[in-house]
Amino acid sequence: MNAGTAALVSWCLDEGFFCLEPGKLVTGFVAHAVRAGIPIERLAVTLRTLHPQLSAVGWVWESGSPFVERQYRAVSTRLEDFKKSPVKPLLEGTESVIRVRLQGADIERYPITQQLHTRGHTDYVAVAVMAGDRRPNVVTLSTKAPGGFSPENLETLRGAMSAFGALLDRAALRLIARNICTTYIGPNTGPRVLDGAIHRGAIERVRAAIWFSDLRGFTARTQKLGTEGTVALLNQWFGVVGDAVQAEGGEILKFIGDAALVVFAVEDGDDGTACTRALAGAARTRAGVATLDTPDGLPIDFGVGLHLGEVAYGNIGSAQRLDFTVIGHTVNIASRLEGLCSQLGRSVLASRAFADALPEAMAPVGRFDLKGVDGAEDVFAPQ
Fold it and tell me: What DSSP designation does 306 have?
Protein backbone atom coordinates (compact mmCIF):
# COMPACT_ATOMS: atom_id res chain seq x y z
CA MET A 1 0.00 0.00 0.00
CA ASN A 2 1.54 3.30 -1.08
CA ALA A 3 1.35 6.50 0.97
CA GLY A 4 -1.53 7.94 -1.05
CA THR A 5 -3.64 4.82 -0.62
CA ALA A 6 -2.88 4.72 3.08
CA ALA A 7 -4.00 8.33 3.47
CA LEU A 8 -7.27 7.73 1.59
CA VAL A 9 -8.07 4.52 3.45
CA SER A 10 -7.33 6.26 6.73
CA TRP A 11 -9.75 9.06 5.80
CA CYS A 12 -12.46 6.52 4.86
CA LEU A 13 -12.12 4.68 8.17
CA ASP A 14 -12.00 7.85 10.24
CA GLU A 15 -13.60 11.07 9.00
CA GLY A 16 -15.37 9.47 6.04
CA PHE A 17 -17.10 6.99 8.34
CA PHE A 18 -19.08 9.87 9.84
CA CYS A 19 -20.15 11.31 6.45
CA LEU A 20 -23.67 9.89 6.46
CA GLU A 21 -24.89 12.03 3.58
CA PRO A 22 -23.66 10.86 0.14
CA GLY A 23 -22.85 14.40 -0.96
CA LYS A 24 -20.45 14.97 1.92
CA LEU A 25 -18.94 11.52 1.39
CA VAL A 26 -18.23 12.15 -2.31
CA THR A 27 -16.83 15.66 -1.86
CA GLY A 28 -14.72 14.54 1.09
CA PHE A 29 -13.21 11.62 -0.81
CA VAL A 30 -12.39 13.84 -3.80
CA ALA A 31 -10.71 16.45 -1.60
CA HIS A 32 -8.46 13.86 0.03
CA ALA A 33 -7.74 12.10 -3.27
CA VAL A 34 -6.57 15.40 -4.78
CA ARG A 35 -4.50 16.00 -1.65
CA ALA A 36 -2.93 12.58 -2.25
CA GLY A 37 -1.81 13.74 -5.69
CA ILE A 38 -4.58 12.35 -7.91
CA PRO A 39 -5.63 15.06 -10.43
CA ILE A 40 -9.38 14.37 -10.39
CA GLU A 41 -11.49 16.92 -12.26
CA ARG A 42 -14.73 14.97 -12.13
CA LEU A 43 -16.04 12.09 -9.97
CA ALA A 44 -19.48 10.52 -10.30
CA VAL A 45 -21.12 7.82 -8.23
CA THR A 46 -24.08 5.64 -9.26
CA LEU A 47 -25.78 3.62 -6.52
CA ARG A 48 -28.50 1.02 -7.04
CA THR A 49 -31.52 1.69 -4.87
CA LEU A 50 -34.94 0.32 -3.95
CA HIS A 51 -37.61 2.82 -4.83
CA PRO A 52 -41.05 2.59 -6.51
CA GLN A 53 -40.00 4.97 -9.30
CA LEU A 54 -36.20 4.93 -9.37
CA SER A 55 -33.67 2.24 -10.24
CA ALA A 56 -30.56 4.17 -9.21
CA VAL A 57 -29.37 7.48 -7.79
CA GLY A 58 -26.15 9.31 -8.41
CA TRP A 59 -23.97 12.25 -7.47
CA VAL A 60 -21.56 14.19 -9.65
CA TRP A 61 -18.69 16.33 -8.41
CA GLU A 62 -16.91 18.41 -11.04
CA SER A 63 -14.29 21.04 -10.42
CA GLY A 64 -15.74 24.52 -10.78
CA SER A 65 -19.34 23.29 -11.12
CA PRO A 66 -22.24 22.91 -8.67
CA PHE A 67 -22.60 19.50 -7.03
CA VAL A 68 -25.30 17.52 -8.85
CA GLU A 69 -27.69 14.82 -7.62
CA ARG A 70 -29.18 12.52 -10.25
CA GLN A 71 -32.14 10.16 -10.27
CA TYR A 72 -32.49 7.31 -12.74
CA ARG A 73 -36.03 6.12 -13.32
CA ALA A 74 -36.80 2.43 -13.56
CA VAL A 75 -38.59 3.10 -16.85
CA SER A 76 -36.70 6.05 -18.24
CA THR A 77 -37.24 8.19 -21.32
CA ARG A 78 -33.42 8.31 -21.40
CA LEU A 79 -33.08 4.53 -21.68
CA GLU A 80 -31.12 4.84 -24.92
CA ASP A 81 -28.60 7.07 -23.15
CA PHE A 82 -28.19 4.41 -20.48
CA LYS A 83 -27.62 1.70 -23.09
CA LYS A 84 -24.77 3.77 -24.52
CA SER A 85 -23.25 4.51 -21.10
CA PRO A 86 -20.18 2.75 -19.65
CA VAL A 87 -22.16 2.49 -16.41
CA LYS A 88 -24.48 -0.15 -17.94
CA PRO A 89 -21.96 -3.03 -18.33
CA LEU A 90 -20.51 -2.23 -14.91
CA LEU A 91 -23.90 -2.37 -13.17
CA GLU A 92 -24.75 -5.54 -15.07
CA GLY A 93 -21.48 -7.17 -14.01
CA THR A 94 -20.12 -7.82 -17.52
CA GLU A 95 -17.20 -5.42 -16.93
CA SER A 96 -15.31 -4.44 -13.80
CA VAL A 97 -13.14 -1.57 -15.08
CA ILE A 98 -13.46 0.59 -18.18
CA ARG A 99 -10.77 3.07 -19.13
CA VAL A 100 -11.00 5.43 -22.08
CA ARG A 101 -8.07 7.61 -23.11
CA LEU A 102 -9.71 10.76 -24.40
CA GLN A 103 -7.74 11.01 -27.60
CA GLY A 104 -8.00 9.56 -31.09
CA ALA A 105 -10.84 7.16 -31.98
CA ASP A 106 -11.47 6.27 -28.33
CA ILE A 107 -13.10 9.65 -27.78
CA GLU A 108 -16.26 8.49 -29.58
CA ARG A 109 -16.61 5.26 -27.59
CA TYR A 110 -19.35 6.68 -25.34
CA PRO A 111 -21.39 9.90 -25.33
CA ILE A 112 -19.90 10.83 -21.94
CA THR A 113 -16.34 10.49 -23.22
CA GLN A 114 -17.15 12.75 -26.17
CA GLN A 115 -18.62 15.33 -23.80
CA LEU A 116 -15.65 15.20 -21.45
CA HIS A 117 -13.18 15.52 -24.33
CA THR A 118 -14.87 18.73 -25.49
CA ARG A 119 -14.41 20.08 -21.94
CA GLY A 120 -10.69 19.37 -22.00
CA HIS A 121 -10.57 16.05 -20.16
CA THR A 122 -7.82 13.63 -21.14
CA ASP A 123 -8.64 10.36 -19.36
CA TYR A 124 -11.73 8.55 -18.06
CA VAL A 125 -11.98 5.56 -15.72
CA ALA A 126 -15.15 3.74 -14.59
CA VAL A 127 -14.94 1.17 -11.80
CA ALA A 128 -17.46 -1.36 -10.46
CA VAL A 129 -17.33 -1.27 -6.66
CA MET A 130 -18.83 -4.32 -4.99
CA ALA A 131 -21.55 -3.86 -2.38
CA GLY A 132 -22.21 -6.23 0.50
CA ASP A 133 -24.67 -8.24 -1.61
CA ARG A 134 -21.95 -8.64 -4.28
CA ARG A 135 -23.81 -6.44 -6.71
CA PRO A 136 -21.89 -3.44 -8.04
CA ASN A 137 -22.20 0.26 -7.60
CA VAL A 138 -20.18 2.44 -9.96
CA VAL A 139 -17.55 5.16 -9.51
CA THR A 140 -16.30 7.11 -12.53
CA LEU A 141 -13.36 9.52 -12.57
CA SER A 142 -11.82 11.77 -15.18
CA THR A 143 -8.91 14.19 -15.36
CA LYS A 144 -7.54 17.03 -17.46
CA ALA A 145 -3.93 16.19 -16.62
CA PRO A 146 -1.66 15.85 -19.68
CA GLY A 147 -1.31 12.16 -20.39
CA GLY A 148 -4.22 11.29 -18.11
CA PHE A 149 -4.00 9.34 -14.84
CA SER A 150 -0.53 8.00 -14.07
CA PRO A 151 0.07 4.35 -13.09
CA GLU A 152 0.72 5.62 -9.55
CA ASN A 153 -2.63 7.46 -9.55
CA LEU A 154 -4.48 4.32 -10.59
CA GLU A 155 -2.64 2.21 -8.03
CA THR A 156 -3.64 4.64 -5.28
CA LEU A 157 -7.26 4.63 -6.38
CA ARG A 158 -7.36 0.85 -6.72
CA GLY A 159 -6.05 0.40 -3.20
CA ALA A 160 -8.55 2.85 -1.69
CA MET A 161 -11.64 1.84 -3.65
CA SER A 162 -12.67 -1.05 -1.37
CA ALA A 163 -12.81 1.24 1.67
CA PHE A 164 -14.64 3.95 -0.30
CA GLY A 165 -16.98 1.31 -1.75
CA ALA A 166 -17.91 0.08 1.73
CA LEU A 167 -18.96 3.61 2.66
CA LEU A 168 -20.95 3.92 -0.57
CA ASP A 169 -22.66 0.62 0.20
CA ARG A 170 -23.63 1.92 3.63
CA ALA A 171 -24.94 5.12 2.03
CA ALA A 172 -27.00 3.03 -0.40
CA LEU A 173 -28.48 0.96 2.43
CA ARG A 174 -29.43 4.12 4.34
CA LEU A 175 -31.13 5.47 1.23
CA ILE A 176 -33.01 2.22 0.73
CA ALA A 177 -34.16 2.21 4.35
CA ARG A 178 -35.37 5.79 4.06
CA ASN A 179 -37.09 5.06 0.74
CA ILE A 180 -38.91 2.06 2.21
CA CYS A 181 -40.04 4.01 5.28
CA THR A 182 -41.18 6.95 3.17
CA THR A 183 -42.97 4.75 0.63
CA TYR A 184 -44.81 2.52 3.09
CA ILE A 185 -45.29 4.86 6.05
CA GLY A 186 -45.16 8.40 4.66
CA PRO A 187 -42.72 11.25 3.92
CA ASN A 188 -43.04 12.76 7.41
CA THR A 189 -43.76 9.69 9.51
CA GLY A 190 -41.26 7.38 7.78
CA PRO A 191 -38.15 9.34 8.80
CA ARG A 192 -39.47 9.52 12.37
CA VAL A 193 -39.63 5.73 12.50
CA LEU A 194 -36.14 5.44 10.98
CA ASP A 195 -34.83 7.86 13.60
CA GLY A 196 -36.08 5.64 16.42
CA ALA A 197 -39.82 6.21 16.96
CA ILE A 198 -40.60 2.47 17.07
CA HIS A 199 -41.72 1.82 20.64
CA ARG A 200 -45.23 0.46 21.16
CA GLY A 201 -47.47 2.92 22.94
CA ALA A 202 -45.13 5.85 22.27
CA ILE A 203 -47.51 8.56 21.08
CA GLU A 204 -47.74 12.32 21.07
CA ARG A 205 -50.78 14.54 20.86
CA VAL A 206 -50.87 16.75 17.81
CA ARG A 207 -53.44 19.02 16.23
CA ALA A 208 -54.34 18.31 12.63
CA ALA A 209 -56.94 18.47 9.91
CA ILE A 210 -57.99 14.87 9.29
CA TRP A 211 -59.21 13.58 5.94
CA PHE A 212 -60.97 10.25 5.53
CA SER A 213 -61.96 9.27 1.98
CA ASP A 214 -63.65 6.26 0.43
CA LEU A 215 -65.00 5.10 -2.93
CA ARG A 216 -68.73 4.73 -3.51
CA GLY A 217 -70.04 1.42 -4.86
CA PHE A 218 -66.62 -0.18 -4.77
CA THR A 219 -67.74 -3.68 -3.75
CA ALA A 220 -70.20 -3.98 -6.64
CA ARG A 221 -67.62 -2.73 -9.12
CA THR A 222 -65.00 -5.26 -8.01
CA GLN A 223 -67.35 -8.16 -8.82
CA LYS A 224 -67.51 -7.02 -12.43
CA LEU A 225 -63.91 -5.84 -12.79
CA GLY A 226 -62.13 -8.92 -11.47
CA THR A 227 -58.74 -8.82 -9.77
CA GLU A 228 -56.72 -7.06 -12.47
CA GLY A 229 -59.40 -4.46 -13.13
CA THR A 230 -59.83 -3.79 -9.41
CA VAL A 231 -56.11 -3.26 -8.94
CA ALA A 232 -56.05 -0.88 -11.91
CA LEU A 233 -59.01 1.08 -10.53
CA LEU A 234 -57.48 1.34 -7.06
CA ASN A 235 -54.17 2.53 -8.49
CA GLN A 236 -55.98 5.19 -10.50
CA TRP A 237 -57.99 6.32 -7.47
CA PHE A 238 -55.10 6.34 -5.02
CA GLY A 239 -52.86 7.93 -7.64
CA VAL A 240 -55.18 10.93 -7.84
CA VAL A 241 -55.52 11.13 -4.04
CA GLY A 242 -51.76 10.81 -3.57
CA ASP A 243 -50.97 13.55 -6.08
CA ALA A 244 -53.57 15.87 -4.56
CA VAL A 245 -52.43 15.30 -0.98
CA GLN A 246 -48.76 15.70 -1.85
CA ALA A 247 -49.43 18.91 -3.77
CA GLU A 248 -51.12 20.40 -0.69
CA GLY A 249 -48.52 19.23 1.83
CA GLY A 250 -50.51 16.49 3.53
CA GLU A 251 -49.50 12.94 4.35
CA ILE A 252 -51.34 9.70 3.59
CA LEU A 253 -50.93 7.63 6.74
CA LYS A 254 -52.66 4.53 5.43
CA PHE A 255 -54.76 2.95 2.73
CA ILE A 256 -57.60 0.82 4.11
CA GLY A 257 -59.13 -1.16 1.25
CA ASP A 258 -60.39 1.63 -1.00
CA ALA A 259 -60.22 4.24 1.79
CA ALA A 260 -57.43 6.65 2.71
CA LEU A 261 -56.57 8.30 6.04
CA VAL A 262 -54.74 11.60 5.53
CA VAL A 263 -53.23 14.10 7.96
CA PHE A 264 -52.63 17.81 7.41
CA ALA A 265 -50.65 18.82 10.48
CA VAL A 266 -51.33 22.17 12.10
CA GLU A 267 -48.09 24.15 12.25
CA ASP A 268 -47.46 27.10 14.57
CA GLY A 269 -51.08 27.04 15.74
CA ASP A 270 -52.37 27.91 12.25
CA ASP A 271 -55.60 25.89 11.95
CA GLY A 272 -56.70 27.84 8.88
CA THR A 273 -53.76 26.87 6.69
CA ALA A 274 -54.09 23.16 7.52
CA CYS A 275 -57.81 23.19 6.73
CA THR A 276 -57.36 25.25 3.57
CA ARG A 277 -54.78 22.74 2.30
CA ALA A 278 -57.05 19.80 3.10
CA LEU A 279 -60.02 21.37 1.30
CA ALA A 280 -57.82 22.25 -1.69
CA GLY A 281 -56.64 18.63 -1.79
CA ALA A 282 -60.26 17.47 -1.95
CA ALA A 283 -60.91 19.86 -4.84
CA ARG A 284 -57.82 18.55 -6.66
CA THR A 285 -59.10 15.01 -6.14
CA ARG A 286 -62.49 15.88 -7.58
CA ALA A 287 -60.83 17.42 -10.65
CA GLY A 288 -58.41 14.53 -11.00
CA VAL A 289 -60.92 11.69 -10.96
CA ALA A 290 -62.96 13.47 -13.65
CA THR A 291 -60.08 12.94 -16.11
CA LEU A 292 -59.65 9.19 -15.49
CA ASP A 293 -60.34 6.55 -18.10
CA THR A 294 -61.37 3.81 -15.66
CA PRO A 295 -61.19 0.06 -16.50
CA ASP A 296 -65.00 -0.23 -16.62
CA GLY A 297 -65.59 3.17 -18.21
CA LEU A 298 -67.61 4.38 -15.22
CA PRO A 299 -66.88 7.60 -13.32
CA ILE A 300 -65.37 7.47 -9.85
CA ASP A 301 -67.73 8.56 -7.08
CA PHE A 302 -66.16 9.20 -3.70
CA GLY A 303 -66.63 10.84 -0.33
CA VAL A 304 -64.25 12.86 1.84
CA GLY A 305 -64.90 13.62 5.50
CA LEU A 306 -62.92 16.51 7.01
CA HIS A 307 -62.50 17.39 10.67
CA LEU A 308 -60.09 19.42 12.79
CA GLY A 309 -58.84 18.54 16.26
CA GLU A 310 -56.35 16.75 18.44
CA VAL A 311 -55.21 13.21 17.63
CA ALA A 312 -52.90 10.67 19.21
CA TYR A 313 -50.01 10.20 16.76
CA GLY A 314 -47.70 7.22 17.22
CA ASN A 315 -47.29 3.47 17.53
CA ILE A 316 -49.97 0.94 18.32
CA GLY A 317 -50.03 -2.82 17.74
CA SER A 318 -48.43 -6.00 18.98
CA ALA A 319 -44.93 -6.38 20.35
CA GLN A 320 -43.70 -7.62 16.96
CA ARG A 321 -45.95 -5.71 14.52
CA LEU A 322 -46.61 -2.00 14.91
CA ASP A 323 -48.66 0.55 13.02
CA PHE A 324 -47.72 4.22 13.09
CA THR A 325 -51.04 6.02 12.83
CA VAL A 326 -53.44 8.57 14.31
CA ILE A 327 -56.32 7.62 16.57
CA GLY A 328 -58.92 9.45 18.60
CA HIS A 329 -62.31 11.14 18.47
CA THR A 330 -61.17 13.49 15.70
CA VAL A 331 -60.46 10.54 13.39
CA ASN A 332 -63.80 8.94 14.24
CA ILE A 333 -65.74 12.07 13.31
CA ALA A 334 -63.90 12.41 9.97
CA SER A 335 -64.77 8.79 9.20
CA ARG A 336 -68.45 9.31 10.10
CA LEU A 337 -68.62 12.44 7.95
CA GLU A 338 -67.26 10.46 5.02
CA GLY A 339 -70.02 7.91 5.54
CA LEU A 340 -72.59 10.72 5.54
CA CYS A 341 -71.40 11.82 2.08
CA SER A 342 -73.15 8.85 0.47
CA GLN A 343 -76.38 9.49 2.35
CA LEU A 344 -76.47 13.17 1.34
CA GLY A 345 -75.10 12.74 -2.19
CA ARG A 346 -72.07 14.92 -1.47
CA SER A 347 -68.41 14.34 -2.30
CA VAL A 348 -67.03 16.49 0.56
CA LEU A 349 -68.43 17.16 4.02
CA ALA A 350 -66.79 18.91 6.98
CA SER A 351 -67.41 19.51 10.67
CA ARG A 352 -68.08 22.89 12.27
CA ALA A 353 -64.59 22.91 13.79
CA PHE A 354 -63.11 22.49 10.31
CA ALA A 355 -65.43 25.03 8.65
CA ASP A 356 -64.87 27.65 11.36
CA ALA A 357 -61.12 27.51 10.79
CA LEU A 358 -61.40 28.44 7.12
CA PRO A 359 -61.05 32.07 6.00
CA GLU A 360 -63.89 31.55 3.49
CA ALA A 361 -67.30 30.34 4.61
CA MET A 362 -68.58 26.87 3.81
CA ALA A 363 -72.24 26.20 3.17
CA PRO A 364 -74.21 24.70 6.09
CA VAL A 365 -75.85 21.40 5.14
CA GLY A 366 -77.66 20.62 8.38
CA ARG A 367 -77.30 19.07 11.79
CA PHE A 368 -76.90 15.28 11.91
CA ASP A 369 -76.41 12.45 14.36
CA LEU A 370 -73.20 10.60 13.58
CA LYS A 371 -72.97 6.91 14.42
CA GLY A 372 -71.15 6.33 17.71
CA VAL A 373 -70.80 10.08 18.40
CA ASP A 374 -72.66 11.72 21.30
CA GLY A 375 -74.76 14.68 20.22
CA ALA A 376 -75.58 16.00 16.77
CA GLU A 377 -72.91 17.58 14.57
CA ASP A 378 -73.28 20.66 12.36
CA VAL A 379 -72.17 19.64 8.89
CA PHE A 380 -70.84 21.85 6.09
CA ALA A 381 -69.93 21.48 2.42
CA PRO A 382 -67.82 23.58 0.00
CA GLN A 383 -69.66 26.50 -1.58
Answer: E
